[in-house]
Amino acid sequence: MTNERLDDTFLPIEAKPPTLPANGVLVAAFQERSFVAGPGCRAVVWVAGCLRRCPSCSQPEFLSFEAGKRRTVQELYEQIISTSDIVGVTYSGGEPFEQADQLGELSERLQQFGLSTASYSGYRRAALVAEPKRFGRLYNALDILIDGEYRKEAHGPYKWRGSGNQVVHALSPKGMVEARAEYDPGSTQEVQFSISGNRLRMSGFPDSDTHELLVEALASRGVLVKEGQQ
Question: What is a single Pfam family found in this protein's UniProt entry (predicted)?
């Protein structure tokens, strides 16, 4: 039986968080600069591992905790603060709140440096607030939370979001200022392409038809798309 208070509709029965390395984050992917994962230019950390099994998951390859490589909080902190021209960092995955203590420590340090912090989560805000021991350190160190699982049937042209059930929450005065400055509920959805070596990464939430057409067109020209949806 699932725990409705935790909004665990798609959790496997008796799922439990794994034992994670102390002071380590399991990172599946990292992007230095993104313009589609929150306000301004932001670094994006995709973590590995998620206990939920949402039917429309946009990153099933990141569900396993074994899909990531261990990075220390210090390593990630140094990489992020050394990236020029960013205003903050956004966490995606996977499920960032399965590594809440580690990402919470990282977020606290980044906020002290002057960067803003944002995170996607398949859990609803009420579920995160209901479990402060498990989720509190990261939740309390966020400026912006985008909650709710991605639902293919509710896909739409939403800025920073893939489906209409997801909600943007400003959790701090800084988050409120940033969100008010850039967030427009009626704005057109954005997709970003970035080049890394000989690979092109597409991030954002393109609809399935657009996504398939882009991937096919690029593949026909010998370009491999490394997908990175939020």
Answer: Fer4_12
